[in-house]
Amino acid sequence: MKNYYPPFEPGCFYHAFNRGNNSNIFFTRENYFYFLRNYAKYLSESVDTFAYCLLPNHFHFLFQVKETVKEEGQLDVSNQFRRFFIGYAGAINKQNNRFGSLFQKKLKRIQIRDFRHLKYLVYYIHANPANHGIYTDFKNYPHSSYKRILQPTQSLLMKESLFEWFDGKENYVSFHSEMQDMKNIVHLTLE
Predict the structure, then answer these.
(1) pTM for the structure as a whole
(2) Residue 112 forms beta bridges with which residues?
């Protein structure tokens, strides 16, 4: 089967998405936390993460592949995702006494080539729970990076860089408080 997604390139931004293979991928509250811990375990040395949203049957990430991936000869980012998915799927299959593939085969991704689109993509990712009718006010959804970005605690999220995209923390909040016109980035969304 042909790979329709080109290799990840150092220094480039990506919107990545995958969904369950005809099922949910999160079954308990702890599954969401376990997923994020394993994402950090397998990918934090290869990518800088700016936003995420985990929904019962799919997820979204916005990240930049680190320049050091090329310089230090680290494992291919695609391989890191593969290892992450295999490990997570194995734990979920064991937890739920199930067999087979948990995820659809390929991690879908779009390279972001226009910096102007990044803040709209952050909004799109955070607004996903409302767009899918899962949560009325996406700002209170517990499994996205929206509120985590606002917390002063340290995390792997690139908070300071993100606030620069929005010209400050207050503008980040304000931007998320208004309904955004997403027609300019429809080509960057994956569903």
Answers:
(1) 0.89
(2) 13
